[in-house]
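From the shared-data thread, chain only:
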Amino acid sequence: MRTRIKVCGLTREADVEAAVQAGADALGFVFYEPSPRSVSIQQAQRLIRRVPAWVAVVGLFVNAPRNIVMSVADEVGLSHLQLHGDESPEDCRGLGRPVIKALRLSAQGEKAANPSTPVLADQVAAYSDCHAVLFDADSAGFGGSGQAFDWTRLSGAFAKAPRHEFCWVLSGGLESGSVGRAVAQLAPPCVDVSSGVEAWENGKQLKGIKDAIRIREFVAAVQAADANRLLKNIS
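Structure, as tokens:
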């Protein structure tokens, strides 16, 4: 099975078109105002008109009231919801669309600084009703950190929720130079990229502004890793 690709944090029509042309399977739009990649409902409507029917449209929310989530989803035409805050399993139910729940992994290891924090397998099991879980690096804020985490942390993550072993997303600091290794090592069903395909100017990252070349390089790296994995399975 090939690795699906989600490009998140899109704010411009040109970047939507670049991601679609490169072969992205899903596009993510951030509805969290503190994020530099946030879009308004009007922006999202304009951008989503550029998305063909065969590409999933994902809305990212952080601790938003469920009536707001459902209203925005209806207004802009979202196909999936990504909840990236402290939403409980109950918060993820009854939203009328497939839900991807982000789980943030600290750099301190399984039993993070707070000893009451559930181990990862328990967290994954708690969200077993969600369409998928997404693993991202923890950070001071919400909505994606742009940082990588230790992938060995995922060992045993699906022990209590085997269904999610076939429906999860790898995020966290991925870019064209690292995603091939991630695909080879972890075989994630889907990878999610945002900061790893953004433009730079005068040594400064332009958050929310994507680079079409970086998007193509990222997709090509995933496709090459998939091809190598297939060859190894055949041989």
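The CA atoms of residues 111 and 118 lie 8 Å apart.
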